[in-house]
Target: DUF1735 domain-containing protein
Amino acid sequence: MKAKQIITAFLAVVLYVSCSDKVTLPSQPLSDYEKIYMPQAVNNPVKRILIVSDTAQTIIYGANYGGQDYPAQDIPVDFIINPALIDSFNQKNNTKYKALPSGSFSFTQTSAVIQKGKLTTEPLELKIKTGGAGAIDVLTDYLVPITMTAPKSNIKVNEDLRTTYYLIKSQPNLADYPDYSRTGWTIAGFSSEEPAEAQWGNGGQAIHALDDNTSTFWHSQWQNASPGPPHYIIVNMNETKILHGLWFIDRQNDQEGKPKEVQVQVSMDGVNWTDAGAFTLENSKATQKQFLSGFKSAKFFKVIFTSAYDAAYCHLAELGAF
Model:
């Protein structure tokens, strides 16, 4: 009983000492958490496909306020296109995006205000010419870095979200280019294929990219060997067509291995090849249509997959052209 009383007394002392200790927290002024930023920059780089038109196309941007409460005063902000950032972006990402030609764009305004008691500016617009005199080139990739400054405000700018990088490309209206019939098309070559997929009903051979069945697919070899990229498929259309672009449907029941970086070549004889374009596909199960960099007359086309999402192997459910 005495031992129990001693233990109880000891715990009481420990509890008293613990409660009497004072913990000093570092100073955390609320102003450290008040920042302004471009909300579009959260998704950098932001891709925008513009349709060729006589009417200028619009890019929307603006600024937001983030903090514990609403701003207690107006916050004026300014915006500029910052072409100096294009070179650094290209070097960092191994890309070759161009700057917008002078005269191809205009701002509706370059200054705005996050008003007292509000969290955003009004939407601002960048107008880009895609048709007529002074328009940007069709099917050309441009990088447009829009940078925000706030020289007249004491609210800090979130440096990670100061600039929104827009990837801009103009293209014709896809609705004007119907898909070609694939009747009579054959496979003229491939880097590898995997017939062992047939045991699960998946096909696995290159011809399954032309069978109108999204439940089957071509798969690069994985049995006995597993070659890495580049992977390719050659299609013989068995007649000469003007190729405007290609369409892709990825495998429907797997994420890894979907095509990412794609190069396209065309040929009249299946021997001599001409580069026709390069693009990046999304990691998606939906149909993806891509224009070639120029419209080409061809009987054969070769699709080269130089990389895939999260895998060295590659697969594709359906492949077509328009």
User: Anything to note?
Assistant: Confidence is low (pLDDT under 50) at residues 9-20.
